[in-house]
Amino acid sequence: MKVLISDKTSPVCAEILRQAGHDVGERSGISPEELKEIIRYYDGLIVRSATKVTADIIAVADRLKVIGRAGSGVDNIDVAAASERNIVVMNTPGGNTNAVAELALGHMLMLSRDLYTAVDSLKNERWEKKKFHGREIIGKTVGLLGYGRVSRTLGKKCLALDMRVLCYDPKIRKNLVDADGIELTASPEALFAHSDYLSVHLTKKPETLNFVARPQFEQMKKGVFFINCSRGGIVNEKDLLWALEEGIVAGAALDVYETEPPTDFELIHHPKVVCTPHIGAATHEAQENVARAIAEQFVDFFAGKGARNRVN
Fold it and tell me: How much is the pTM?
């Protein structure tokens, strides 16, 4: 089978596919126009987050049988259009779980100690030791929006740091304590009211767009630190900016944005915001994990062994 890898992946991905006898084309950075022109010649397509697999591309993919996302989010793939043409869409959940959880934890610590500002101050040759008085995370409460792999992994790390961990998931809506000690709440109001840190880990879909907006910020504990390493669009950025200006949110850390790359930098330039360019999964380990996983899933799929991690 012919497989196109249209985003940069670990070399292990192409290596596994070629060892299984598949013809692999690697076109990292390909334009949408080029992809639309050549996709008709391929049986499989592997992407990360850069390639947008739109309905018009899928419409001319005459041979395409499977689209694989080397990662978890599939919002860059028109899954409905693929389903209409009986094209399987699969992802690799779990491969980058720890990487994203570690980044969220790093952002929590950065906000707690105002590390970005402190580093910037000294790099600008200022010795402002008395200016920086941070907070310790021990004994604090972190609220997690979503109860998926990343959220649970982050929760366990926070428990190990002697934090209390609350969680709300709109699909669960129950009061219970899981085996690790994460306390699930039946309502988001309880989460917002008690959290010193709030980290977003929801899947992006129509019902979670603008899930956190002004009404939710108004319910939050004053002085909360806010972290979003999930997907842009789940948090209303204008309302987050309002919450920062009102002092409800003491600081925000963002790895994802409504538009990527961003075109409006008002929130990013805010002095109480630390930001990274969607690097949650950007570790050597995570990229090797997802590249290996999607290649092995393709090998099994083309060998008639089923579609693991199918999302449609």
Answer: 0.88
